[in-house]
Amino acid sequence: MSDTSLITHLRHIDVAMPNFAEQRRFYTELWGLTESHGDTGVSFLAAEGSPEQYVVRLREDAHKRTDLIAFGAADVADVDTLAARLMAQGVRLVHEPRAIDTPGGGYAVRFFDNEGRVVEVSADVAPRRHRTIEARESVPVRLSHVLMNSPTPEATVAWYIKYLGFRLSDTLCVGGRGEIMWFLRCNTIHHSFGIVRGPHAAFHHASFELRGVDEFMRGTGRMRRMGIERLWGPGRHRAGDNSFSYFLDRAGNTVEYTTELEVLDEDTWHPHLYDLRDPANADQWGTANEMDEFIAAKSHNDVAPGLFVAPPM
């Protein structure tokens, strides 16, 4: 596989759940996303500051599952090149490159990763009219990053580096217990994707970028006042140097407000290994509640159904 990544950025995360109406209300009325398109049992949710047609797709289903993770490519030729490389390497496709009929259209290939998650890479998607987020406006600017749990994280990290051209930014460990979290990038942003050591393959968390620290704190406070279950934060991570506040959505998925995620110099950056036994590596500010195994377990999420099974849309 070429060392050159054909992936440019993260587009959206698509999830399904039985309590669709409740989830839709959470993300639009509380979390701050805007429904850009919708139909019976499906909702496409945009971030006001992002040109992406949507950053979250909700779909009603009898079972909770992650439908797919979507990334962008520069043009249709890159989608074709990536698909050809994947097929030559024996990666199983969901479908070959073709026109897609989701909002904004475009041209995409879908395939399974090594653990059976569905990944989409698309190009030529029409941008959405978006706007500048104003001071003190605590709604997401964009989807920042998505992390996934894996029972075989070393192999999964290696797969995304080998086949999709991701680069390792930093790794977290816990002393002699070994490495537990890997942050991967496809551009100069510290991470848009990552893998967490977990008991099973599942969604770990999705993070949404706010305008600045003031807007981040206002959003954090709004969630707390509304009684949304808080897992961890507010604080500031060492890896990525970003602020964090983690909550649970109505289906038990972990979602994060963040801001100021680090932008790297590709020519000089070298990955770090941060040991979480030093509390400053988890939270530089020292303001967050203490992380423990019970809080962490909530982000392990439910066992992902439908691995190596394509979503219905």
TrEMBL record:
GO biological process: L-methylmalonyl-CoA metabolic process
The keyword Metal-binding appears for this protein: yes
KW Iron (keyword) present: no
GO molecular function, one term: methylmalonyl-CoA epimerase activity
Alphabetic keyword roster: Metal-binding
Cross-referenced InterPro entries: Glyas_Bleomycin-R_OHBP_Dase (IPR029068), Glyas_Fos-R_dOase_dom (IPR004360), MMCE/EMCE_epimerase (IPR051785), VOC_core (IPR037523)
Top-rank taxon: Bacteria
Domain VOC: 9-124, 142-260
UniProt protein name: Oxidoreductase
Organism: Streptomyces antimycoticus
